[in-house]
Amino acid sequence: MDLDEIDRRLLNLLQAEFPLAPRPFAGLGERLGLSEEEVLERVRRLKAEKIIRQISAIFDSRALGYRSTLAAFQVPDDRLEQVATAVSQNQGVSHNYARNHFFNLWFTLTVPPGEDPQAGVESLARENSVSRFLYLPTLRVFKVAVQFDMVGMEGQSRCPPEKVGSAPEALGIEVDPVLVRQLQKDLELVQRPFLSLAEAAGTSEESLLETARLYQGQGAMRRFAAVLHHRKAGFSANGMGVWAVPQERVEEVGLAIAAFPQVTHCYQRPSYRDWPYSVFSMIHSRTVDGCWQVTSEISLKTGIQDYNLLFSTKEYKKARVKYYED
Known about the structure:
two-stranded antiparallel ribbon, Arc Repressor Mutant, subunit A, 2 domains, alpha+beta, nine-stranded antiparallel sheet, Alpha-Beta Plaits, 11 strands
């Protein structure tokens, strides 16, 4: 990376405080002591260098009536590429990775209202002749906070846990699918980027922004923000820490793990006879050793000694879920 202090401060603002205003880059410039065009030039460069993945609305699937799950397949090594490619072709699959475990293919599947994610996972297993798999829906949310501190560069997520300890019930918020389809698009890097979105939605710029702020206040939209390519941004290692936690200690341990700033996600999920782990945590660091160090600290703090840390060995797919699209 070749980032100066202003680049780093700008990346923090883009992740956490992107203005829902007609000229958002001018607003960011006021915070940084830069002109609007200087901000745009920096953002364009950061996008071209693939440090910024996308700038758009980040919606809560549950609020829109969608349901999602994590799943893992055990696939023979000689079929892994074939099965991974087939799974990635499913439109509802947003993330798909090979990981260093006998359950070696891990993916997330999101389905629209009225569909069953478990049936979707089972269908993918049948289609690909996978006999051993895990269905791992979220039972409780302890933390979702994917914002990397580019100034401190300590592998920290910058925002507090969202809906700590909450169950993933459907939120039932009414939204306009036309506006959702526009707000989820990667933002055009121009002075008034929301204007073209509003025109495509058949509404005014002011109305679109007002609705976006409403969705954010209701929780349908978690935030409007930049998402980074975390490896390009300097956080080259991330591991999925999984913890075998006694049922009576799940909440206590989940909250303790969520308190670690290097943890960006923390959930309770089902455990099985061949998969004893009930608490999942995503740990980000600049190095693999850094991830293991955090894992050791979590174990020491919680007293949980039965755990594993799974690293992705190949990324097959990483994309945003596209809501209300065919």
